[in-house]
UniProtKB/TrEMBL annotation:
Protein name as catalogued: Sodium:proton exchanger
Alphabetized GO MF terms: antiporter activity
Any one Gene Ontology BP term: proton transmembrane transport
Domain Cation/H+ exchanger transmembrane: start-end pairs: 8-390
Length: 400
């Protein structure tokens, strides 16, 4: 209860000073992460936080379900773009898988002798991008719209594609001796299939009911915000009850519901987006706790090297070549390759891993995640403004 009170108090304080802090480049993720480090470190912390409790595990699962739902509904269609495609297919289905494979191989080189499934889990944790550390960049009109659109769409859908693979790799790490690899594959396919069915049915029914209720005058766009708020929880719970993957169900529900929600208007998704933001702040506070615990006795150069590789070469090269021929020039392709920030998605996956894996394996994943996200917050945080200014100077020079 104390941890909840502290997070809520921090949220209230941040809301009062958000604009002032933004002028000093102090973002909400940075503020909550620092607060988590300061308040939860040591053997007798000011704010005790038990990440091994079952309630923590279930709570983190619900956080991920909401974030996946919001990501599915939030990726804008950017109708003002002359070119409808911004290479999102190549980013999601070519660059992302290649990045994960490269991260697994890099893990084997940096951490020789480590279990391949553990390396796979770690790669799936550190490679999905998150937009929080570069949120200001995505609203900066000095940056070409197609670059912002590509990053926004990739950030919105990458975690939805990664989540079933993450669950599958975790299952292989903790599987009983009686469970064969084939059994786990069949189980994963079954869970994903059931989740897709649940997501499609629930998302379609919800979209039709919302349209009809609004058309008949039974509800207003404002009151329908509550309907949008409960949908990710309904999708997760329904899928789990029928034996499906709750994360996939929440994501698919968001995809199917998105068009109707945007058509209804009236900021129909505003409430669930605010809830997701509140949950994300709590996740950043948890990240502070993880960082304080993992690096209390120092940080190994191996995880620093791995984090740097994950943020640079392992993402940059696949992205740079994947979007070739999609209308991006070299500087824009470089920007897409570099600005793959990490954040809430990686933190949530790491917390799920540490609550399910044996202590040593869980710490391995969390170590890699903490190093990668910390480096991302610093490197991407200090580079987004110079990149935006460079695009501005480039555009100005081009008009002369």
């Amino acid at each position: 209860m104390l941890a909840l009170l502290v997070v809520l108090s921090l949220l209230f304080a941040w809301a009062l000073a958000a604009d002032r802090l933004a002028r000093w480049s102090i973002t909400a993720p940075l503020a909550f992460a620092v607060a988590g480090i300061v308040l939860t470190r040591g053997y007798d912390p000011a704010v005790p936080l038990d990440l091994e409790a079952h309630s923590t595990y279930r709570g983190v699962e619900l956080v991920l379900a909401v974030l996946l739902f919001v990501d599915a509904t939030e990726a804008e269609q950017y109708e003002e773009l002359e070119q409808r495609s911004v290479g999102e297919g190549r980013l999601l289905f070519l660059a992302l898988p290649v990045s994960v494979v490269l991260a697994t191989l890099a893990g084997a080189a940096v951490f020789p002798g480590t279990n391949w499934w553990l390396l796979g889990v770690t790669a799936l944790v550190v490679m999905p991008m998150d937009l929080a550390p570069i949120s200001m960049f995505l609203r900066d009109r000095r940056v070409p719209l197609r670059v912002r659109a590509a990053l926004n769409i990739e950030g919105g859908f990458s975690d939805g594609l990664i989540s079933p693979l993450f669950v599958f790799c975790i299952a292989n790490l903790v599987r009983a001796h009686s469970s064969s690899f084939a059994d786990l594959v069949v189980r994963a396919v079954k869970e994903a299939g059931l989740a897709v069915v649940v997501g499609i049915v629930l998302g379609y029914l919800a979209s039709q009911l919302v349209r009809r209720a609004l058309g008949a005058g039974w509800a207003s766009a404002g009151t329908l915000r509550l309907a949008s708020l409960v949908l990710p929880f309904m999708a997760y719970a329904t899928s789990v009850l029928v034996g499906g993957n709750g994360f996939v169900a929440a994501f698919v529900t968001g995809l199917c519901y998105s068009a109707a929600a945007h058509a209804v208007g009236g900021n129909n998704l505003e409430l669930v987006h605010d809830m997701a933001q509140l949950m994300a702040f709590a996740v950043w506070f948890t990240f502070g706790k993880l960082t304080a615990d993992e690096f209390a006795s120092g940080i190994g150069w191996g995880v620093v090297l791995y984090g740097l590789l994950a943020l640079t070469v392992l993402r940059f090269v696949p992205v740079y070549f994947a979007v070739a021929g999609k209308g991006f020039d070299r500087p824009e392709r470089c920007a897409l390759g570099w600005l793959g920030s990490r954040g809430v998605t990686s933190i949530v996956f790491a917390v799920l891993a540490v609550t399910q894996l044996p202590p040593a394996e869980g710490r391995f994943v969390v170590n890699a995640m903490c190093a990668t996200v910390l480096l991302s917050v610093v490197l991407h945080g200090v580079s987004v403004v110079p990149v935006a200014r460079w695009f501005e100077r480039r555009a100005t020079a081009g008009t002369k």
